[in-house]
Amino acid sequence: MEQVHLFTKKQKPTHISHTLSFPTHVLEAFSFPQGAHMMKFEAIDATDNAWKFCLSTRLTGAYPKPVLLRSSWHRFVEQKGLVPEDRVVFFMERDGMLRRYTVKAQRKVMILMGQDIWVDVEDLPLYGL
């Protein structure tokens, strides 16, 4: 299966306390039921834990504005200890009709030769952080 990067998003205080907005173009990677504006999906993290998220789009307005509902997103934020300036990265793998999503929670640990070095939050203890 080929892994496709869906998006990377640096966390702002509103993402930590409320909800995570998705870029609109990412909706192409999800199969919403006909006529639905909400769907549940599962994403696997770096430790093979499955996270159940609820992706919703608004019913009115110029564009759908997809977001992960707080009820499903906040548990992930708390368990990963996310803080502003951390980032989350979503990927999708497709094998025929089967879609598998993965999510990474990362923290910038240093800048090396002008490049930001990001580490999965699960690996932070290895860096003494």
TrEMBL record:
Gene3D superfamilies: DNA-binding pseudobarrel domain
Gene Ontology CC terms, in alphabetical order: nucleus
Keywords: DNA-binding, Nucleus, Transcription, Transcription regulation
Localization per record: Nucleus
InterPro entries attached to this UniProt entry: B3_DNA-bd, DNA-bd_pseudobarrel_sf
Single annotated GO MF: DNA binding
Protein name as catalogued: Uncharacterized protein LOC105109433
